[in-house]
Amino acid sequence: MVNLLNIDDSDYAGRAAKTAERGFAVWDVLKACVRPGSLDSNIDEKSIIPNDFPAFFSGHPNIERVFFNGAKSELVYRRHVLPGLPPYCAGMKLERLPSTSPAHASMSIAAKLNAWRTLLKSEIEDLTT
């Protein structure tokens, strides 16, 4: 996403700050899990511990959209996070984007980039409404 937003800082703190300045938060759905290897399909479902989204959304009440980096993050969010969210979160738009993982090679980088431009379109729509 950093390249999509034309953020060229080389250090993590700088990239994170500039991403936030643009109105985006990047956070893993999972706080912890057991995953032999690097494939999301290998996540042990019984080991899943989601991040504390109720507290995060409470501290950031202007969040209106949640985008997912692939199918597994969306599935885990819907299964392990969504049922525990307070009612005011019910109106948030949820949208899955194609995984940026190299393991998701069935889609070209150009096609992934085009799909991820949805983030920028959303940002522009927010500024004009």
How is this fold's topology laid out?
Layout: H1 12-21, E1 30-32, E2 49-50, H2 53-59, E3 65-69, H3 71-81, E4 93-97, H4 109-116, H5 118-128
Parallel strand pairs: 3-4
Antiparallel strand pairs: 1-2
Describe this structure in words.
The structure is a single chain. With 129 residues, this protein is α+β, with helices and mostly antiparallel strands. The chain has one domain (12-128): Uracil-DNA glycosylase-like domain (Uracil-DNA Glycosylase, subunit E), CATH 3.40.470.10. The protein is built from five helices and four strands; from the N terminus they run αββαβαβαα. The strands form two sheets. Strands 1-2 form a two-stranded antiparallel sheet. A two-stranded parallel ribbon has the order 3-4. It starts with 11 loop residues before the first helix and ends with a helix. The mean pLDDT is 84.
What descriptive keywords fit this protein?
Uracil-DNA Glycosylase, subunit E, 129 residues, alpha+beta, two-stranded antiparallel ribbon
Tally of alpha and pi helices:
5
Q: Provide the CATH top-level class.
A: Alpha Beta
How confident overall, as mean pLDDT?
A: 84
Can you give the helix content as a percent range?
A: 25-40%
Strand content: 5-15%
Let me know the number of strands. 4
**CA(first)-CA(last) distance:** 24 Å
Strand order of the largest sheet: 1-2
The CATH topology comes to: Uracil-DNA Glycosylase, subunit E
Based on CA inertia axes, which overall geometry fits?
globular
* Assigned CATH architecture: 3-Layer(aba) Sandwich
